[in-house]
Amino acid sequence: MDDTYKTVIRPAEGYITEKKSKFISHIFPVKSADEVKEILEEQRKKYYDARHICWAYMLGWERHEFRSNDDGEPSGTAGRPILGQINSAELTDVLITVVRYFGGTLLGTGGLIKAYKEAAADAITNAEIAEKTVDDIIEIAFDYTLLNEVMRVLKQLDAVRWTQDFSDSCRMRLEIRRSLAPQLTNMLTSIHGVAVVHL
Known about the structure:
- The protein has helices at 33-46, 79-88, 108-126, 147-156, 181-189, and strands spanning 4-8, 12-18, 21-29, 52-59, 65-69, 94-101, 129-133, 135-142, 161-165, 170-177, 195-198.
- By secondary structure, the chain is of the alpha+beta class.
- The strands form three sheets. A five-stranded antiparallel beta sheet has the order 2-3-6-4-5, with helices on both faces. A four-stranded antiparallel beta sheet has the order 9-10-8-11, covered by helices on one side. The protein has a two-stranded antiparallel ribbon with strand order 1-7.
């Protein structure tokens, strides 16, 4: 099972010029379409004098949620090439914007596609890319008498992270990469008296 994905750690910038037109690109880590909207509003305020702010984003580890926008450039010449760069770098949970300042010379569709593609690629090149795991969350509840047994199971799997609440009874919230979740669940359910809930 593929339970990893690639994203960027922090925003980064790129820049190219083409026949005196300036293309300033930015890549941002994002988690939702709302976050995308906020960043686009900030970019429009910051670059209020730019001719176009074209963009594309990809969300979710399965990479099913994506959009691109040409912002007034000829259809398919800006947003799609930016999205193409996100795809070729196999990134997700990212937004790339490319701000264009017109240099007085029309670039034609081929020139635009090339410029937006190169600007997006430059931002990706300057970004720090990390591989992350898709994690499942499991909640467990059990009696104090079982604490040692539960801890023994958790220590067998390096990839488990947990938080605990031991006020009334023992409750733990476990986070583990998806491919290891079935193994962890089986190990825990084999302990009589442990209630396991997948969130």
